[in-house]
Amino acid sequence: MNKALFFISLILTATTLSAGEVLDSLLHVLDLELIHNKKYIQLREDRIAALKMQSPLSSEDTYSINRKLFYEYKPYICDSAIYYMNYNLALATEMQDMKKLKETVFDLSYLLSSSALYKEAEDILALIPRSELLPEDLTAYYNCYDHLYGELAFYTNDKRNAELYEAISGNYKDSLLQVIDKNSDIYLKLQETFFRDEGQYDKSLEINDIRLSRLEPDQPGYATVTFYRSLSYWLKGDIENRKIWLALSALADVQQAIKDNASLGLLADVLYNEGDIDRAYNYIMHSFDDANYFNARLRGFQISSIQSIINKTYQRKIQEQNEKLRTSLTIISLLSLFIIAALIFIYGQMKKLSVARNSLQKANELLNNLNTELSSMNEKLLSINGELSEANHIKEEYIGHFLTPCSTYIEKMENYRKMVYKRIKTGKIQDLLKTVDSGDLTENELKEFYTNFDTTFLHLYPGFVQQFNELLAPDEQIILKKGELLNTELRIYALIRLGIDDSARIAEFLRYSVNTIYNYRAKVKNKSIVPRDDFDSYVSKIGGNMVYN
Asked: Which tens digits make up the pLDDT trace of 13-24?
């Protein structure tokens, strides 16, 4: 059993689904199977091709192969089925095999009756004389005549003949019931039809249950039995179940590649009346194609009227949809024009915005440059302010430190004047000359001056000596004697740190010759670990640890 049939079995055995849900599921499966129906057609074609490839060794073999081909073509292509039965009819006559002749006549006659070839069916039956019939032949014989006149009664347009054909069919049916096996499907079919015609639909369905229990969905005959079941539900007024069993019958037709079908066309008619135009159109077109493929006039006639109505309605629906589509396209076109105009406007605004953004970016870049320059200038200004502040502080410190010595010097000068005056007055000229000629006074004053300078400078730059030594090679660093604050080398560069870098001024300040100052500076630079030319610059930057009080 294929997946589709397995799915159908699950649907039918599900107790939780309503009839509407079962029908929806079946129609969904049917839609899919119609899309893929070519695979089922190919399976039948493959079986037919395999039979035709066989090489019969005798008339018996040919007859057997033709009979198998007949059963393949019987629900598929009517003309081909008739052809192989006529072929077997000739073979049976040639072999003078009455058994084969009778089974061929019965099969061919039944098919011709189903295809509305009533005269041909009657002529074929006439080939078997009544006297040649055996008891086991009577069931098929009466069944063929019952079917022939039953079809004539149903499809004739002459009411009087219809009654006559129906009476003849009834007689053959009575004869059939006398000889038929009560356990056969033909008997059950007759019983089912009888109860349905009598309006006893529940009994008709009970008989149909027995027939269905003997079949699987993938077996021949399943589509026919389910079709008759749908008739009982229709006459009973149960439309939902009618559609379900029509759908099952149509599914079996599709999956067995049966072109001689009626269920799909009737299902299309029901769905059309319920307003499911698209599905009805799809089903009726498939049904119409099947009828043309099967090539029996009766099948095309049966669905032509339904097909015409559904097709017109479908075309009208398509036309209405096209009108709606044209209206929608018009609206969409207008909206598209509006959107295009809006996009053009937005594009223009974006270009303006881009120009403005570029201008703003340039202005920002210019402002950033100006800010950078301003920041640089501020840094320089802060540096200058720092230098000025430092210079001012140095000036303040030195003014503060040297005001007191100046006052002291004035007092010393006054005392010295008094001493000179007193000695001159008292006539101690020689003592005065000895005092003046001595250098002790000058030496003492210089020591006091250097001590004041050293103290004041180191107060301003307490880390000067250490940072200065860091500019010299480790083994060339200056080590002060006990009690020294600065020595001559340090004092020279202390003046340079204070901004006095002229050797002549330094020499004047320290009371040395200019050459001596040059020699001191050169000697120190030779000990430097930094470039000689940059040494003074490094010294001028000493003072990170300056303390302001």
From this structure: 555 578 888 999
